[in-house]
Amino acid sequence: MRRKLIQAIAATTLACALPAAHAQKPVELDFYYPVAVGGPVTKLIDQMAADFEKENPGIKVKPIYAGTYQESIVKALTAHKSGKPPHLAVLLSTDMFTLIDEDAIVPIDELAGADGKAWLGGFYEAFMMNSRTGGKTWGVPFQRSTIVLYWNKELFKEAGLDPEKGPRNWDEMVDFARKLTRTDASGNVTQWGVKIPSSGFPYWLFQGLTTPNGAILMNEAGNQTFYDRPEVIEALQYWVDLSAKHKVMPGGVIEWGTTPKDFFERKAAMIWTTTGNLTNIRANAGFPFGVAMLPEKKRRGSPTGGGNFYVFKDTSPEEKAASMKFIRWATSPQRAAQWSIATGYVAVSPAAWDTPEMKKYAQEVPQALVARDQLEFSVAELSTHENQRVTKALNDGLQAALTGAKQPEQAMKDAQREADRILRAYRR
């Protein structure tokens, strides 16, 4: 009788324990990440997920490497439409309107909790410009950047230029680039003064010219562009003239992906690229280099760039809460500092720059401070409804002008006409 009583108690205890054990099953998160963003970051993301899981045993994070940013947004939306979206993803900050229009994401404000406003207020305002619309916050800054100018100090010295000073304005950049351009006995250029890439993200590099010229390319509502304004056309004319008139930059399309390599191989004395390439350039340059804010015309300035965290709508409350926990953890000051040091992206909050690790890094690598300091003058990256189509209209116009197929004014008027056609429905 005693044995049967013990067995009955044990069975009851086990039965009661099963629901509890089931309730403690880890929440599993599919995390889409764009692997092709520059540099070997998959190991860093894998380690980040492992470190988070150690501190949060009730949550499992599964990184899914989805290709380029463009491929990642397509895959994320395809998964969303199939009813199996990722739980969270890093996608371009400029994908915000597209994700909203597809009803794919939820506002961060609804998930951030009682201290959410204060927490979101801790990020740099320049990064939040591409994270908010309609009074709501939709993305959390993670791997963010600005465009900066890199120069080879040895080549500056050889050209009789001060190796410690980059060009301050548009005129100086042309003057420096002339002195830095080299040709062989046959008249072939062996070293270009400057390279500004025009593939991959031409619209973004173009904003590095329009912003200093006092132009903004779109409104905050994302339903109007200003491609054909005089200051925009003037900026494009300057870009075209670097090759067509001044002969200090190659004509035609300059590849985004090979520009750092050209810098390493001394085929270009100055280049424009993302601050996210800083770690890559530090590792591979093989010579002393400088980093400067973009040259000014009427003002200083660069667009911000890079990716935000987004939380997808068609997931459970528990999964959304777990996603937010990971996002808060990944963007905490210490983690943001570690990510910046490892990749070259800009640490996304002032608090991250106040950590001991970041202070030490800034002393050792003062070039990292340039992108941070440029945030004071930065503007939102081009982002609208139907963003890929509207951006393509501009990219097509830019490449038409840079290849000589159209004059800058005509190229920008055509681009604006196409953008107006696409966005007309969003202005009703």
From TrEMBL:
It comes from the Bacteria. GO terms for cellular component: periplasmic space. The keyword Amino-acid biosynthesis does not apply. Residues 1-23 form the signal peptide. PROSITE patterns: PROKAR_LIPOPROTEIN (PS51257). InterPro entries: Bact_solute-bd_prot1, SBP. Keywords: Signal. This is ABC transporter substrate-binding protein. Belongs to the bacterial solute-binding protein 1 family. Its main location: periplasm. It is found in: Periplasm.
